[in-house]
Amino acid sequence: MGDLMGKKRQRAADGGERSLIGNAEDRDAPTTGFVYVLAFFSALGGFLFGYDTGVVSGAMLLLKKRMNLSALWQELLVSSTVGAAAVSALAGGFLNGWLGRRICILLASLIFSVGGVMLALAPDKVVLLVGRIIVGLGIGIASMTVPVYIAEVSPPHLRGQLVTVNALFITGGQFIASMVDGAFSYLSEDGWRYMLGLSVLPAVLQFLGFIFLPESPRWLLQKGQNQEALQVLRWIRGDQNVEEEYDSIKANIEEEEKEVGAGGVVLLRMLSHGPTRRALIVGCGLQMFQQLSGINTVMYYSATILQMAGVRDDKEAIWLAAATSATNFVFTLVGVWLVERVGRRKLTLGSLLGTGLSLALLAVGFLLSAQSSPPVTLHPVDPNNSTYRLYGSCEPCMLDPDCGFCFRENGTKVFESSCVPVHQASIDHAAWGRCYNKTEDIKSPIWAYNYCPTSYSWIVLMGLFLYLAFFAPGMGPMPWTVNSEIYPLWARSTGNACSAGVNWIFNVLVSLTFLHVAEYLTYYGAFFLYTGLVFLGLLFVLGCLPETRGLQLEDMENLFMGQLCSCGASSPTHNRHVHYIRVKGSNYFHSEDENSDVD
Ligand SMILES: O[C@H]1[C@H](O)[C@@H](O)[C@H](O)[C@@H](O)[C@H]1O
């Protein structure tokens, strides 16, 4: 074993130098346009991920009225997709290893198409629920397969950028979904059918594309289909000399097999092998912290934040929410531009720092709003004679899930305000009284179920914008990009399945707990909590995330040879020394001390 590891490190060291030279050449080498075609068609999976998770909020506004959906059914229709994605992302690891990346992408696009047709034609809420679960199964498989496929077909110097394009497509999907929501919100009858059904178009396009596109050459080599692998490499790289890359991948697979064996449960082998165990902790940790930084809560909550800021019209709020997803999209583009320039580690660290500070600003905005919460001035008599809680100001009334704030305003001045019970069937109006009948008349009272009018909304708005500007280039895409790179081939599908599963599980956890957390800690407490979690994430990344820019996928394992979390950018590990050589502004790994043993 020790001997093998020694040879492996020798090869890695040679490979490191070779990739070092290779990379310098690579940058100047012509890249065939074909790799961009591959990235585009694969990233349609990211688009569908974003579209289907984003479109549901607008569709729900219409659906709850058309189908008379209770709060439980609304919750089910939203969360079932994310829950199904968690399950299928985990299962996707096995499918990826067994069937290959291409078949999995074809499967996902087929599932998306079937789910989309079902949703568009759904006669009742049960069919809708089944459709949402089916779509979720597609999202899970796509979310873990697409980054792996793109990473495996890309040359090292373009890999970060091309995998990050998938994340760009995710936020692009969310943005288009919000535009479609806005456009079809005027069709109150059947608008939701178009919103949910339109996803069939990109799904079919991806399916048709992948009928003609090749399997990942790395997966083919792993399955012993050497001739096909060589052909695909030639196809993707154009005229370039691919023998060296082919030999390097092949030699690596053989060594890995000798080193960690071939049979058995991959996850167990990963956990008992130091470098893959550490990579798995880093990959899952990144995905966990991505969700713990509250992105989906902030996005979801943006409509309310805008209402706080004085946007009272529902339609206007929908369009402004589209501006939020547009911001997320535009700043992901900045991430695509930066990833190969500053590297994954610096990008993630900078993003976490800015995200944490913006969350603190959001929390301060909510705190100031709570402190200047308008008082309740009217205490109307409950016609149903049921006792309802008496609150002195808007803040506690708004945090109570059974009540809402009913008020009039004159400019920024709030008057004639009361706290009344919410209607059992819909949070859109009060159970009785002045806010029972919602009219378009601007003089009629305003019903605020989950916000309070405030003059500090500009701080919250600024916090929201800065949050997206910092989160989107780094913490949004980097967990996906890094996970596609850090595992050796034999562990890549399983590693990505686990980390994507962690992402979806924490997505559900954070969304389901937000309102309860806000009820106990208030909104500012909830945002201070996210701030704390983001700073924990910052420490984690600072200590544990090595730089992967420019390295061959086959050389990544060396980054995780030492103790976990001593693997920060350039720190030496306990049993071997790692240092970086700068070539053309990039860090390249170079190994010394080949004979020491690992673990
Ligand atoms: O990377 C994506 C992206 O940031 C999305 O905006 C978010 O909704 C997802 O949860 C996340 O995984």
From TrEMBL:
<dbReference type="InterPro" id="IPR005828">
    <property type="entry name" value="MFS_sugar_transport-like"/>
</dbReference>
<feature type="transmembrane region" description="Helical">
    <location>
        <begin position="33"/>
        <end position="51"/>
    </location>
</feature>
<feature type="transmembrane region" description="Helical">
    <location>
        <begin position="129"/>
        <end position="150"/>
    </location>
</feature>
<feature type="transmembrane region" description="Helical">
    <location>
        <begin position="192"/>
        <end position="213"/>
    </location>
</feature>
<keyword id="KW-1133">Transmembrane helix</keyword>
<comment type="similarity">
    <text>Belongs to the major facilitator superfamily. Sugar transporter (TC 2.A.1.1) family.</text>
</comment>
<feature type="transmembrane region" description="Helical">
    <location>
        <begin position="71"/>
        <end position="91"/>
    </location>
</feature>
<dbReference type="InterPro" id="IPR003663">
    <property type="entry name" value="Sugar/inositol_transpt"/>
</dbReference>
<feature type="transmembrane region" description="Helical">
    <location>
        <begin position="456"/>
        <end position="476"/>
    </location>
</feature>
<feature type="transmembrane region" description="Helical">
    <location>
        <begin position="351"/>
        <end position="370"/>
    </location>
</feature>
<keyword id="KW-0472">Membrane</keyword>
<keyword id="KW-0812">Transmembrane</keyword>
<feature type="transmembrane region" description="Helical">
    <location>
        <begin position="497"/>
        <end position="517"/>
    </location>
</feature>
<protein>
    <recommendedName>
        <fullName>Proton myo-inositol cotransporter</fullName>
    </recommendedName>
</protein>
<dbReference type="GO" id="GO:0022857">
    <property type="term" value="F:transmembrane transporter activity"/>
</dbReference>
<dbReference type="InterPro" id="IPR050814">
    <property type="entry name" value="Myo-inositol_Transporter"/>
</dbReference>
<dbReference type="Pfam" id="PF00083">
    <property type="entry name" value="Sugar_tr"/>
</dbReference>
<dbReference type="InterPro" id="IPR005829">
    <property type="entry name" value="Sugar_transporter_CS"/>
</dbReference>
<feature type="transmembrane region" description="Helical">
    <location>
        <begin position="523"/>
        <end position="545"/>
    </location>
</feature>
<feature type="transmembrane region" description="Helical">
    <location>
        <begin position="162"/>
        <end position="180"/>
    </location>
</feature>
<comment type="function">
    <text>H(+)-myo-inositol cotransporter. Can also transport related stereoisomers.</text>
</comment>
<dbReference type="GO" id="GO:0005886">
    <property type="term" value="C:plasma membrane"/>
</dbReference>
<keyword id="KW-0597">Phosphoprotein</keyword>
<feature type="transmembrane region" description="Helical">
    <location>
        <begin position="317"/>
        <end position="339"/>
    </location>
</feature>
<keyword id="KW-1003">Cell membrane</keyword>
<feature type="transmembrane region" description="Helical">
    <location>
        <begin position="279"/>
        <end position="302"/>
    </location>
</feature>
<feature type="transmembrane region" description="Helical">
    <location>
        <begin position="103"/>
        <end position="123"/>
    </location>
</feature>
<dbReference type="InterPro" id="IPR036259">
    <property type="entry name" value="MFS_trans_sf"/>
</dbReference>
<keyword id="KW-0813">Transport</keyword>
<keyword id="KW-0325">Glycoprotein</keyword>
<dbReference type="InterPro" id="IPR020846">
    <property type="entry name" value="MFS_dom"/>
</dbReference>
<feature type="domain" description="Major facilitator superfamily (MFS) profile">
    <location>
        <begin position="38"/>
        <end position="549"/>
    </location>
</feature>
